[in-house]
Amino acid sequence: MGLLTPSGGLLFWMTIAFGVVFFILAKFAFPVILGSVEKREKYIDTQLDAARAAEVRIAGLEEEGKRIIADAEREKVNILKDAAASRDKIVGDARETAAEEAARIIAEAKKQANEEKDAILASARGEVAMIAIQMASKVLRGQMDDDRAQKALQEILADEANG
User: In 3D, which of 161, 154, 126, 159 has the Cα closest to residue 140?
Assistant: First the structure.
């Protein structure tokens, strides 16, 4: 007997042993193995479904993130526009207030200058009048020494008074 050609009895007992082992495996081991494989398959399927759901959720979150960023950009632009408008309004109000204050100060200064000018003119007129009176008094004293000049002056004053 050679190694490559088995005898008939050996083939018979090998077939019987294979059948018994196959029967035991089919009865006890295959259901457990198939149950584990099915359980593992179900687990993998649920994990794949969860991964797909997570992928969809991530895509949704990315879209929402982009939308939030776009909204934030629009809000930033609006805030900057409002800030610029407020700044322009405040600057305009300040300029207007400054112009009004300057006009008030100028008007007050002109009024004060006019009052001082009037006071100076009144003072100058008073001084000129006093000087004129003093000069007239000196001139009149010189002329009053003469009796004829006094009588002529009295007649002129009487005529002006009668009028």
Answer: 154
